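The data layer described in this paper is built around a simple, fixed record for each protein. Such a record has a labelled line for the sequence and another for the backbone structure tokens. For reference, a complete record is included directly beneath this paragraph.
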Amino acid sequence: MCPERSWILDHFDRGEWRADLRAAIVRAGLLAALWWVLSGGAWSSWLFGIPAIAAALYLGFRLGSGGWRWTFAGAVRFLPFFLWRSLSGGIDVAWRSLSPSLPLDPDLIEYEFRLPETPARVFMSNAISLLPGTLSAEYADEKVRVHTLLRGPGAVRELERLEERVAGLFGLEMASRGDRA
């Protein structure tokens, strides 16, 4: 018997398929709602939408979540913070491009993570690029290199605030700066 087949049978024997079925139904519903919004509700788009949703479900379960477990309370706190910072960042960058007199003092800084897990670190590294005047330039396990439009402690404070929100989103405790040395 192939090892993959035995894993599937073990999965059914332990009753884990019920939780997976519930998760698949919820994910399929969310993906279908997203497809409906993105396609403008066009019925003809479902010819491509259904296979795309099925492929996303298959890959999601096949690859696993990799620890991407968000807390509801953390998501409620993270979303307004992130939306506001993304909007204000877009306005700031647009304003700077239209007003050459505004200061620009670019810098490349290394930010050492206090987050304990890789999925949260990857999420934060991607979220950095959508915040005001920052771009995640290079990601390593313990650090991320960030390009900023303004040199100074403000960028580091912004990254610390983001990291606190990401920790809350994932329900994680962060290490103190002294624990990383």
